[in-house]
């Protein structure tokens, strides 16, 4: 990879009703960014980009005020609340036109922004993806910790590669963001897509802090929606489970058939019982298998319509050789 000696960095911050924390977060992030600028690690026109995800409070007013005070602060405003993933995608897409490096971080600074300089340093070593990983989730509630552990366990069982205890605090180089933007699905599960893209990556560990002010924007129903999106957009394994269960039921029916025949031979069976039980079991099993076959086709259609790229090229020395000698 061609390293940009002094990259332009954009820090993308999704914000949904973050009025109580925004000012303080903006100052902390800018302090860290300006240190990087004065030490010539990033360009002086690096930016902090707040994406207002349809907040109902004064978040957008605060963002515009910050912009008037200092041109380092910029913003995008959604027409309504689309969700954190959409805010991240929008911020990254816009920032990628002008940046060499993009860092995404939550507005509440639960994730430690002080590792940002280390992230930038890693990128200067040729690393394209630097994951911020929490080594301590003590600040999260018992329920959040346990449900997160369950989620990572289940995703691993489904064969989806995720970075455990990593949320949306990460650095990406421009070429990774460009690759990410080729995944056009409407409900992208960014945490699952990025490891799939490949590219050299590293992890940096930090201690997750409690939210400084305001409250979590992830009530239970949003957490369930998020987890379901992760599971369903990466795997058709739940459909397979239905198939295996159907086969199990049919196997059970077959065993029952043998048992019933033996009972018949002994002549101690209640009339009508065998035919009812066998039809219930066989039909049940057969229906499950039939549903799972339809599901397999639906699953395939689902995978196709996402139009994920078939491959991503990291380096191409072939095309470059022709650039200067275009055919006439
Ligand atoms: N967020 C967003 N849109 C939403 C929900 C959340 O942009 O619909 C932002 C939010 O402002 C914050 C980040 O996503 O910057 C993470 O949200 P939060 O801190 O509430 O999540 P938690 O830390 O509780 O998991
Ligand atoms: Mg938070």
UniProtKB/TrEMBL annotation:
It is found in: Membrane. Keywords: Glycosyltransferase, Membrane, Transferase, Transmembrane, Transmembrane helix. It comes from the Bacteria. It is an enzyme of class 2 (transferase). Residues 10-149 form the Glycosyltransferase 2-like domain. Signal peptide: none annotated. GO terms for molecular function: glycosyltransferase activity. Its EC number is 2.4.-.-. The keyword Transferase applies. The chain crosses the membrane at residues 242-262, 274-298. The keyword Signal does not apply. It holds the Pfam family Glycos_transf_2. It is a multi-pass membrane protein. This is Glycosyltransferase family 2 protein.
């Amino acid at each position: 990879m061609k390293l940009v000696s002094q990259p332009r960095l954009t820090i993308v911050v999704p914000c949904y009703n973050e009025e109580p924390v925004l000012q303080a977060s903006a100052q902390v992030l800018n302090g860290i960014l300006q240190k990087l600028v004065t030490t010539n690690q990033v360009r002086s026109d690096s930016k902090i980009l707040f994406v207002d995800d349809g907040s109902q409070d004064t978040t957008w007013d605060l963002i515009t005020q910050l912009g008037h005070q200092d041109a380092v602060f910029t913003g995008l405003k959604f027409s309504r609340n689309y969700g954190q993933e959409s805010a991240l995608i929008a911020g990254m897409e816009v920032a990628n036109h002008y940046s060499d490096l993009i860092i995404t971080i939550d507005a509440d600074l639960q994730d430690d922004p002080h590792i940002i300089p280390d992230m930038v340093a890693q990128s200067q070593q040729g690393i394209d993806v630097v994951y911020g990983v929490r080594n301590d989730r003590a600040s999260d509630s018992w329920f959040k910790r346990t449900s997160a552990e369950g989620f990572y366990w289940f995703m691993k069982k489904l064969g989806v590669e995720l970075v455990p205890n990593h949320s949306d605090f990460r650095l990406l180089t421009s070429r990774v963001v460009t690759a990410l933007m080729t995944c056009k699905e409407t409900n992208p599960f960014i945490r699952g897509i990025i490891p799939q893209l490949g590219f050299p990556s590293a992890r940096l560990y930090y201690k997750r802090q409690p939210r400084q002010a305001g409250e979590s924007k992830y009530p239970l129903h949003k957490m369930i929606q998020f987890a379901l999106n992760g599971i369903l957009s990466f795997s058709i394994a739940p459909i397979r489970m239905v198939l295996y269960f159907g086969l199990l039921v049919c196997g059970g029916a077959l065993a029952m058939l043998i048992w019933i025949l033996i009972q018949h031979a002994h002549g101690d069976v209640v009339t009508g019982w065998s035919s009812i039980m066998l039809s219930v079991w066989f039909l049940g099993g057969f229906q499950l298998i039939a549903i799972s076959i339809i599901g397999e086709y639906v699953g395939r259609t689902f995978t196709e319509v996402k139009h994920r790229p078939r491959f991503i090229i990291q380096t191409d020395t072939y095309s470059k050789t022709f650039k200067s000698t275009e055919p006439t």
